[in-house]
Write a structure and sequence with these properties.
Oligomer: homodimer
Distance between the termini of chain A: 35 Å
CATH class of the largest domain in chain A: Alpha Beta
Shape of chain A: elongated
CATH architecture of the largest domain in chain A: 3-Layer(aba) Sandwich
Number of domains of chain A: 2
DNA sequence: GCAAATTTGTTCGTATGTATT
DNA sequence: CAATACATACGAACAAATTTG
């Protein structure tokens, strides 16, 4: 009796899920059925199902039953750029085009514009004093009608004072912000640095992305700092924070000469 | 009575963890103590602590107690390359150097060499027939003595027949495999494509990486396909699978002109 | 090295509340 | 409103891991 009963039951259900006896979206036997089938108390059955729930294999719906989770078709974002630095995957200008190019539907909310005193994570990346004013533009993005990512881009408030007034308008900047900043301020983007990190979603993120309220599904946080040419090397131009659910996103980074096909989702 | 009791208790403990009243590594009150403190049954207390456990905030050690988890100093891997394609972060030649350059200690196990019939995930990437022979070289990597990543690289068996015999030796290839393949077979690497995907760890991976046996901590799977120049565009040279725990790894990708500092761990 | 004490792990039983159909 | 199914809560007992005397 090395293996506790709840685990034996969990393993049996796991096996049925893996082999496809229980299909994705299908309903598990109810707690009562499992109880009679395994001659166990209801609490033991609940422990077994809990084991599966904690691993994200099944979902419980109060009043309905327990169901095998359905996998979402992953979306692939291109982070590399090669020649066309301005068109790569996470930025507003290129995002919708890339999504539609993959035969999926992209929707973006109108940007929510805020002026705030730069918190450390923005100030340090833009190399402006902490507490100095910055403009943030925040968008909610959908792919195929499902909430997909949250993106916030921050610019020094100085840009607005110098003439880039459209940064404050709660509308997409026509032609994209990159070319807008070039036209109005002569700022030319020459490179960018992406950071990828993984963490549990914040409350607000979990709500928009409809993630389960335990923190089982993490998010990928992509922080892109864009640089313009400066006298003393590249200087920060803007910084973009993108948050995507880890369970339905993949990333591709090309370097040097690679095949030209558009990479689809991979399995490993 | 909107909030169930076990959640109230969980929130109170969560607060103590967040504010630092309970320090990382510190012990929580025992179930008995919490029971008397909150006038609740032991099962209710256990539900509360379970809530924290499921979120990865505390760890239970049978016979000892419950403890606040300690965060691991994240390691930053560079995936971009710019000019020095052969030196970037996930490949054997550059890995140890990059780790030591960050002031940490890198250790690598001797490669475990296998000859096997190519499974689909390798065959399709190397563009060899499924079931044809390939050589895989697998290494376990440590940073600061803790298990950090598992890496497997696959080459077509044809390379060995054409003279790259050292691929079969269970030892590091002196000077690195890239230059070895160039010297022996004239194969020149001209680019690579990285894919980043996230998934639950396999049993074997969880064991080596010492991940909790629930699948709370996911792994980042980095699949790098390296290409050589061919008559009809780039042709696959080798493919490398790297698996790293998602809770202690970050990635940096540079593109174009960016500052030259070595990026440390970021917080978001 | 063994025994006792402490602490978490598993399992049963029972009762009542809440959400959905 | 009733039936179904999951959620929360109580109490009790024994098992297993760890530390301490």
């Amino acid at each position: 009796m090395a293996e506790p009963m709840y685990r034996v039951i969990a393993m049996e259900l796991l096996d049925e899920i893996k082999t496809g006896t229980l299909e994705p979206g299908g309903q598990l036997p109810t707690e009562l059925e499992l109880r009679t089938r395994h001659q166990a108390s209801r609490n033991t059955i609940r422990d077994a199902v809990k084991w599966l729930t904690n691993r994200g294999l099944v979902e419980k719906k109060p009043g309905k039953g327990t169901f095998v989770v359905e996998r979402i078709d992953p979306y692939v974002t291109t982070l590399s750029s090669g020649t066309q630095a301005s068109l790569s995957g996470v930025e507003d200008e290129g995002w919708a085009a890339e999504v539609e190019g993959r035969g999926r539907t992209a929707t973006t909310s109108a940007p929510r514009v805020e002026v705030l005193e730069a918190p450390p994570r923005i100030a340090s990346r833009l190399r402006v004093p902490e507490g100095s004013e910055v403009v943030t533009r925040r968008q909610e993005r959908y792919i195929d009608r499902t909430p997909w990512s949250l993106q916030t881009t921050a610019y020094p408030m100085e840009y607005v004072r110098r003439g880039a007034a459209d940064l404050l308008r709660a509308q997409p900047v026509p032609g994209g912000t990159i070319s807008y900043l070039r036209r109005t301020l002569g700022l030319e983007q020459v490179g960018h640095r992406d950071r990828i990190l993984l963490r549990a979603p914040r409350e607000e993120e979990a709500r928009f992305l409809r993630l389960p309220d335990d923190n089982r599904v993490w998010v990928v946080s992509v922080i892109r700092t864009c640089y313009a040419a400066g006298d003393d090397g590249p200087v920060p131009l803007r910084v973009t924070f993108t948050v995507l659910p880890a369970d339905r996103n993949q990333f591709v980074i090309d370097s040097g000469q690679v095949p030209e096909d558009i990479p689809g989702p991979a399995i490993d």
